[in-house]
Amino acid sequence: RAGHDIYMDTRVRLNGGYAASVRQVRVLGAGQVNVENGTLMTDSLTVKTGGTLSLKNVQAGVHVKTLRLESGSTLSWDRGKVEINGGVFDKADLGLNLGVLADTSALVLMNGAMARVPGVTTVGSQPTGRGKIVVSGLNSNYSTGKLNVGLIGEGVIMLSGGGSVSTGLNGWPGPQTTLGQFGVLSGEGTVQGTLESRGRVKPGSPTGTLVVTGTYRQLPLNSPLPAGVLEIEYADAVSGQYDRLQVAGSTNLAGVLQVVTIPASNPSDPVESRAAPVLVAPDRDGPGHAVGTA
Question: How far apart are alpha carbons 59 and 225 in whole angstroms?
Fold first, then answer.
């Protein structure tokens, strides 16, 4: 009930398309919260050691300010969406797998929300799986040891409004975000650390800047694995209507540059807008080293 606290050591099932709104939920011991076809809305959801939170349906939703999964708790996330609004997602045990089944499992961080997941985060963890992480808003951040996106199944990272992802949490070696052949990174925001891509990198929403604070390596075709793709949307250079990938470290370019033209609002003279610095990096190397303007 709205405005109440719930402490449970038994099994509770939310189904039938209903929404349950409470102030605080604590799942104790052998307690289970199974969200199948409905939405759980609460300020704080804590799953204690031995407790279980499960999302089993594409219509399942958990909308919270703070979600804490203590050591020894279980998160069974086959489908559905977890939305963290302005608070914290804290997972004590190592790792997080999103995208186990064909329907999408999505984590949304918004309005300054922060996630801390030690170990490896895998988005698209099964061949038929689809996983997504959305980080929206200034100061919203997803932090993990290592981030694998689309290596096995479909994986998507969407950044907007200055959101960021970062790796190397708790001293994890070789901080790195890796896009596999089924992975997509898109939007306006920051990737903190190294980015290696055999997937598709799409700055902007629809146009804008994607920042990489470490090195950027785009991999070449290595049959049967495809080459990485940098997709740039371009409308007009003078008015700044184009995508930009800004890399603080060295850049090794191979693979494909795909330029997509889109309509410009108040376009400048076409002669003046033929070139735009779509890749900004202090050091470029590799077969695609000449790729820098559109």
Answer: 34
Q: Which whole number is the average pLDDT over 73-95?
A: 93
Residue 292's pLDDT is what? 42
- 8 Å CB contact between 155 and 124: yes
CA distance 49 to 159: 32
pLDDT digits (tens, 9 = 90+) for 270-285: 544 456 778 888 866 6
In sequence order, what DSSP letters do the residues of 165-214 get, joined into one string? EE--GGG-SS-EEEE-TTEEEEEEEEEESEEEESSEEEEBSSS-EEEESS
Q: Is the dihedral of CA 132, 40, 56, 10 positive or negative?
A: positive
Q: What pLDDT, in 10s, does the model give residues 34-76?
A: 998 889 899 999 999 999 999 988 889 999 999 999 999 999 9
What residues contact residue 223 under an 8 Å CB cut-off, 6+ apart?
Answer: none
Q: Are 46 and 73 in contact (CB under 8 A)?
A: no
